[in-house]
Amino acid sequence: MERYREIFRLAAQQMIQDSNDKLSGVTAESVAAFASSLVVGHALQVMFDPEQFNAEDILFITKVLFIG
Q1: What would the pLDDT profile of 28-68 be if each residue is shown by its tens digit?
Q2: CA–CA separation, 67 vs 14, rounded Å?
Q3: CB neighbourhood size of 47 (10 A)
Q4: Span 13-32, average pLDDT
């Protein structure tokens, strides 16, 4: 988890800089924790209910929520 969070933290720093103040006051660490939670949560969903898990749907929902 620490390795995931570090990778996401580096990307989050750039994302925060490029956000045009949409993420002002948000730390790279909190974005990294959120992203790591998504990865772990998706892995758990696949383990518990693989027939119902659809990666394309999850990506679509993510785009709608975060990109608009």
Answers
A1: 999 899 888 888 888 898 899 988 888 888 888 877 877 65
A2: 16
A3: 9
A4: 88
Q: Is the dihedral of CA 7, 12, 17, 19 positive or negative?
A: positive
CA distances from 2 to 11, 14, 38, 41, 63 (A): 14, 19, 14, 16, 25
Q: Smallest Cα–Cα separation from 36: which of 68, 67, 6? A: 6
Which residues lie below 8 Å from residue 18, measured CB to CB, with a gap of 6+?
A: none
Can you tell me the distance from the alpha carbon of 58 to that of 38, in angstroms, rounded to the nearest whole number?
10
Look at the pTM and tell me if it is higher than 0.85.
no
